[in-house]
Design goal:
By secondary structure, the chain is mainly α. It is built from six helices and no strands. The mean pLDDT is 90.
């Protein structure tokens, strides 16, 4: 969780530097068109990475709740949980995805198709490596945001709106204690009412 954003920034910077070097003599219009088409593949890869990471954690929490409540005896994920989580993830992305995309692709740094491709490809690689090699849950949002910072920094450091990026990092840091505080308050209320 702590390493993936650092890897995302550095790897995305490196990937974008290689792309810039490889296409340094190419026509900008042709490069943009080509990377716009290539983004279809990188966006699909990012979508799969999103499902690999975020859906797995959600399904794990639901199955753990089912086992804890005595509804299930094993930790096998039922089909209805998979369908429910996939539907919720898809609807959530559909409903709020444009705000996130606008923030990441316009407010932090302006992403053109080559930079979008590099960020998505890098983030996907980090997500897949974490899932398949390390079997570790990491944040899709942390990974893609750090990759966008990395590709944005290839323009120049001032091209990145570091204030917006800083606000995002502060929100990340505050999420853990905030979630813990809400859970503690919920526990105290349930304990006081039910006495468990």
């Amino acid at each position: 969780m702590l390493v993936s954003p650092i890897v995302g920034v550095l790897l995305a910077y490196l990937v974008m530097t290689v792309i810039l070097w490889l296409f340094r003599r190419a026509q900008p219009g042709q490069v943009t068109r080509g990377f716009r088409q290539a983004q279809t593949v990188s966006a699909a890869a990012m979508g799969l990475g999103h499902g690999l990471q975020d859906a797995q954690r959600t399904m794990g929490v639901i199955v753990l709740a089912l086992v804890t409540a005595g509804v299930r005896d094993d930790f096998d994920v039922p089909l209805w949980v998979i369908v429910l989580v996939a539907t919720a993830l898809g609807l959530g992305t559909y409903a709020g995805g444009w705000r996130i995309i606008r923030t990441l692709g316009r407010r932090i740094v302006h992403l053109d198709p080559p930079r979008g491709f590099a960020a998505e490809t890098t983030a996907s690689a980090v997500l897949y490596t974490a899932a398949y090699v390390f079997h570790a849950p990491i944040s899709t949002t942390h990974t893609i945001t750090s990759a966008i910072l990395g590709v944005g920094a290839t323009r120049r450091l001032s091209a990145v709106r570091w204030g917006v990026a800083g606000n995002i990092v502060i929100a990340w840091v505050l999420t853990f204690p905030g979630a813990g505080l809400i859970a503690a308050v919920a526990y105290w209320i349930v304990h006081a009412v039910v006495g468990v």
